[in-house]
Amino acid sequence: MAATTEAKVRQLAWVYDLNKCIGCQTCSVACKVLWTRDEGEKQQWWCSVNTMPGLGTPKNWESMGGGIDLVTARPRPGHQPTREEFGGGFDFNYDEVFYGGTGGKAHLEPQAPRENRWAMNWDEDQGAGEWPNSYYFYLPRMCNHCTNPVCAGACPTGALHKTDNGLVLRDEDICMGDRFCMEACPYKKIYFNYERHVAQQCIGCFPRIEAGVAPACVRQCPGRAVFVGYLDDEDGPVNKLINTWKIALPLHAESGTGPNVYYVPPLSPYRLNEDMSIDYETPRIPPEYLESLFGPEVHTALGRLKGEMESVRGGAKSEMLSTLIAYHWQELLGPFTVDPATLTPNGNGHREV
Amino acid sequence: MKVAKLSGALADPQWAGWSGADGATVALKPVALESQPNAYIREAWKDRDYGQVAEGQVKAASDGERLYLRVEWPDDPAPNAEFQDAVSAIFPTNGSGVLATLGDADKPLVLWFWENGRPEALRLISRGPGVFRRDTGDGVAAAGVLADGRWSVVLSGPAAIGAKGKVGLAVWNGSNDERAGLAAVSREWLPLEMD
Lengths: 353, 195
Known about the structure:
heterodimer, A: about 350 residues, alpha+beta, Alpha-Beta Plaits, 4-stranded mixed β-sheet, two-stranded antiparallel ribbon, about 20% helix, about 15% strand, globular, B: mainly beta, Immunoglobulin-like, 13-stranded mixed β-sheet, 1 helix, about 40% strand
């Protein structure tokens, strides 16, 4: 009897530790220089970090609909983010500043109308609350490579598909630029290339994954704040953070698409009273705000984190905290530990181990 | 509709020689909501009108090498920065095909597709509303002009397709976010009589 082999379908997942993300945008830039430097991609940031609470990118994306109605199981109509809502892709007055003979008078400025100007990370560090109880935290975002990708379901040409490792990829030769995917995506992380008439989004660095190299957003993170790995890898930190310790949660799970980017929610300093004494009962980031992002499980997750920290302060050891601290940075990379500098080009011009 | 034998600037929608070509008015109707290819589109458009262009004027001519179809229809002036007006001439592949659904899996249709702002015209194989694939067998060209509130577009391709003997029409109103299967389409084939 002939042996049959069946490709095992797995799911890649990312975990961002929001207590370690410093908003440095290294992940954003690592992605940008690798994937979106071609024609029509100037305004595209497949990975981007925004300050929360904030309007984010595209502007006000959390109010744009999309996803699946969990009651009716039907897709929820969404708004297609416009060029203006994404913003960015500015030209700058480099010539004037550097060569225009204007000395220190001219300063770098986007060459775009001031009115309604917007871009990725436009509302950086704005946050919310009143001094001394103002607060903010950073939220890196990318395609969630959803288990139930509504973008793929909404595409009339079948340009999007789920790969055997769970990535949602687009065949740009098939994409007609209809942009139903952008409407349907509840995370609004699909961009439109107005030059090439195709939609584009994070590809999970699949050529790196295939060569055993971690995605650029993960490998380049100087804060050791993001993990990648397969959800079913029981010994991997991704699985433990999500399933064993349950301290990594999906963003807006109510969108119903089964996102595979998870977040360790941010701990918060306590509020200060008017006399500057500490109100130990009230965290500065309103719990209900965190719940609106990460669901009711956020309270348990934060409680678990705090409890673990308390126990370590008492002298105990904690695998959970050691994992989050990431003493050995290669643990962040899951099975994708190959150093890209060790790859050599093969005969096809591709890189191989 | 007789395909006029003409020589001159046939690819130019504003060429005066087009006045000598036979013409026809083609009634257009929206592709039915229930025919749309997926639940998302049906849900998103169930309460919205589309396929808003009610009719188009078509003229046909050939210089022996290429078939030229000049289509004219009223423009919706409402601004839309995201979606553009578009038009297609439609041909059968297997002798027939359902215009109302822009073809189906068994009987796909050929579309010569022009979209305002798109640098090149496309030849598409259509297997349903918006179920399009680019076809490499090209040679399709198009040019469009907006004047006096009306679009005039000339689509052209190898004259051999005229032997199919019929043509259909689809128009997308970009001002109304129309694209893919959200089109106004002729329901009856218009006979093409080649000399």
